[in-house]
């Protein structure tokens, strides 16, 4: 399946208000250009941006828990925090458990509010060297401590810590836990079905076993866990309302990608021999069929990261778009796709381009978007809503 790109830029006017609160003026929808469907003249909402908590360091993920709590991971501190009413407290200091090096440390979180369970993807040390793994804990009723630690998936490759990206996503229906991984900067990993590197994996979040409907579930070895392969460094995962899974990944010097995931699909990253980053992100000269990206950055990259689908009629023309955070680009892209997965338009609100590097983006229960900055010091969690 080869999906072709149509790119449109949307303009937004912005005015800044008091510290901690920014408002974007009403953004109009630009003409999508030749070959694209005509755009309506309806306006998207102005945006309100509030700081939820400050004083963080490389926060990698934010997830909503019960009772209005937010759960936040910090990569290098290896700390999980609970934030409520603007106040942060430490839920767990995992510095003795987590291996931290370069891009690897305490990474993505997943939270089951009803069962009071937390999953984390993180670096770990073994006798044979470092790896990345997925661990699960139970949480007490007051969200003050973790217990019952269980390793759900281990053996994700790690080298120096480069390309250790690991994103988690709880599927809305059934027991699936989706795990997006980096290739650990080893060229042979992405297309090796028995390596967990450069993959999107699916496991049963209760048992840690491969999901029975995985495309290679009837095989032996690690490939039973594989949903898609041929990825470079998966940074974001999102499930659309129709149940389809989408990934966001870092490109090399070109082509950050958003991919619609096809079970068993090959996404074409094959930087061999060695680690040859001059090859295309999706190399169509490889044997078999490779899946084209539904959006790519071209050159230069903007380091796309976390992603979430925008929910709620309050978002107006932005409802149903995929919001994608960018690190190097220091912005949020709102990408609209049609039902087939073809790109229709792109909005880049200037109100969200004032906070530096943006790592993760999560849809809160009320439809607001939660973002983490990743500038290294003085980082924060932001809450974005329509005015």
Count of all domains: 1
Helical/strand content category = mainly beta
CATH topology: Neuraminidase
Distance between the termini: 40 Å
State the CATH class.
Answer: Mainly Beta
Biggest sheet: strands, sense, closure? Answer: 6 strands, antiparallel
Count of DSSP H/I helices? 0
pLDDT average, as an integer?
90
Q: State the helicity in percent bands.
A: under 10%
H/E series: EEEEEEEEEEEEEEEEEEEEEEEEEEE
List segments where confidence is low: pLDDT < 50 over at least 5 consecutive residues. Answer: 1-43
What portion of the residues fall into strands of 2 or more residues?
Answer: 35-45%
Number of strands: 27
Structure description:
- This protein has 387 residues and is mainly β.
- It has one domain: TolB, C-terminal domain (Neuraminidase).
- Helix content is 0%, strand content 42%.
- The chain contains no helices and 27 strands.
- The protein has strands at 9-10, 14-16, 21-24, 47-56, 59-64, 70-74, 79-84, 87-93, 106-112, 117-126, 129-139, 146-157, 166-170, 176-181, 199-204, 226-229, 234-239, 245-249, 257-260, 295-296, 304-309, 322-326, 331-337, 343-347, 358-363, 369-373, 379-386.
- The N and C termini lie far apart (40 Å).
